[in-house]
Amino acid sequence: MIRTALASSLKRGYSTTPLISAAKPVNGFVGAIGNTPLIRLNQVSEETGCNIYAKAEFMNPGGSVKDRAALFVVKDAEEQGLIKPGGTVVEGTAGNTGIGLAHVCRAKGYKCVIYMPNTQSQEKIDLLRMLGAEVYPVPAVAFENPDNYNHQAARHAKSLENAVWTNQFDNTANRRAHIETTGPEIWQQLDGNVDGFTCATGTGGTLAGIARFLKEKSQGKTKIFLADPPGSVLYSFIKSGGKLNERGGSSITEGIGQGRVTDNLQPDIKLIDDALQIPDTDSLRMVYRLLDEEGIYVGASSALNVVAAVEMAKKLGPGKNIVTILCDGAYRYQSRLFSKKWIESKGLSDAIPEHLKKYATL
Ligand code: PMP
């Protein structure tokens, strides 16, 4: 129907047949969060014999999946009376929650203060500052260290009047965003035919919230796989049945990988059926493949998620509907992911096949 209308409009120059069913107007920035498209990734679907669907979270108004959590933690603080008009929201973040918060704070009239590890891309720091946030990039030290970016954010909030540390890692309003919005959207978009869901975790809010909703709705039938980058402890935690190893190694992916089981993940970790560890070579290759095959320009955590969905499809067998998340756009990392020099510095030049190297233009 849409295709026919499009074809005839191209032939005649215009068409009066609607091409899309347009969504109703929404109220302000926060009203535009959520209700993202679910995209069938055609090439990887053909290859696996499954339908691999990706939730286009990069289409949120602040550009990432974390807009949802940002809105929910601020609403929660307001409802609990922890912040009043003109107050300050302080958060520790790899960047995307901060960007979501900076937008929500502008829309609601709060100040925004962000602590982030100084290992994160310059693009995210620049964007946060352009959105009016006060940004402190700090040395990337473990959570146990009192100078970890989260503890610094907590102390900063305590030192101010009318300020809240939204604590995305252990504040379960984050996970609630996905129980109440992302999970139901996926279920509705596939008329309840969801055989598998997989994604990586930072706070764990996305995975835990969606897992909780899908498991309940499907009466346990939807399989849930956690996807982990190198250097994160959750893969071995799940594979070993609950042994928490020291964190070791690193990854080019930003915003994912964890050294502990957060309060967002804890209540739902038993819902996870299996875990996958995805090497950086595969994630980087998938960044380029998604661009080349689908015209989709997303960051490394999104690409890792798609690699995990492909692995999950192989494990579950053909004919299944597998869903994952496209967390954010590659705009946030392009000085890294599309720079030959940077890729070389990470020893990842061989990850990109010859015919895709033409995209590394920075
Ligand atoms: N991908 C990116 C790019 C992110 O910034 C984040 C959040 N830090 C995630 C994935 C993971 O989301 P969550 O915190 O819900 O686990």
Automatic annotation (TrEMBL):
Its main location: mitochondrion. GO terms for molecular function: cysteine synthase activity. It is an enzyme of class 2 (transferase). Pathway: Amino-acid biosynthesis; L-cysteine biosynthesis; L-cysteine from L-serine: step 2/2. GO terms for biological process: cysteine biosynthetic process from serine. Residues 32-328 form the Tryptophan synthase beta chain-like PALP domain. Its EC number is 2.5.1.47. It is found in: Mitochondrion. It comes from the Eukaryota. The keyword Transit peptide applies. The keyword Acyltransferase does not apply. Keywords: Amino-acid biosynthesis, Mitochondrion, Pyridoxal phosphate, Transferase, Transit peptide. One of its GO terms (cellular component) is mitochondrion. This is Cysteine synthase 1.
